Amino acid sequence: MMEKREIDHRSTRRDFLHGTLSRADLIANPFLQLAHWLDAAETTGNFDPTAMSLATADAQGRPSVRIVLLKHFDQRGLCWYTDTRSQKGRELAENPQAALCFYWPENDRQVRVGGPVERLSEDEAEAYFQQRPAASRFAAAASVQSRPIAGRADLEARLTALHAQYPDGKVPRNPAWGGYRLLPDHFEFWQGRASRLHDRFTYDKDQDNWKIERLMP
Prior knowledge:
- The chain is α+β, with helices and mostly antiparallel strands.
- It has a domain at 23-130 and 180-215: Electron Transport, Fmn-binding Protein, Chain A (Pnp Oxidase, Chain A), CATH 2.30.110.10.
- The protein has helices at 30-43, 87-94, 122-131, 134-142, 152-165, and strands spanning 51-57, 63-69, 72-73, 78-83, 97-104, 109-119, 177-182, 186-191, 199-206, 209-215.
- Strands 1, 2, 3, 4, 5, 6, 7, 8, 9 and 10 form a ten-stranded antiparallel β-sheet that branches.
- It is globular.
- The model has no long low-confidence stretch (mean pLDDT 96).
């Protein structure tokens, strides 16, 4: 029987001393501000600067969250790729809204992004699939993401069978493997500050412009 004990982290803390954020620091375009902070995270040695939490919800509003990797973005939105048969894919089919969160502890920075989500085109999905390493392409083809499987050996057997079927390495993309674009209508840029008196600024879509406001921490 598992020992009944409380895991207590109420005294676990650190202060945030890496920077400040003022209205004058912000770029008017939130996509450019995100690009600036992403570059800074990479420069300061973040192990995985494009990693972002992706929160989705099913038709009943029950949320789920996981880490995915940002692959590209422009003024339209932020893009990632996955198996559309996965839990996140099924939830986005039912409820095409999502939220993203980046966290870069080396800079004491967090960015939240929210908005509706659309599927990327088949051409975009195919182009990215073909530029992935061969091992990643075979892994994607072997897996029906989020579905149960009896054991690791069964998964590896599926992979072995694909290698035998496509010895030239040209495994095709399953049409279920594709991409998504979040179309932001809200950004929040958070800069950790000493004594938890953090700097927070939001960008909210106002027709073709962005309204910027400071929030209390």
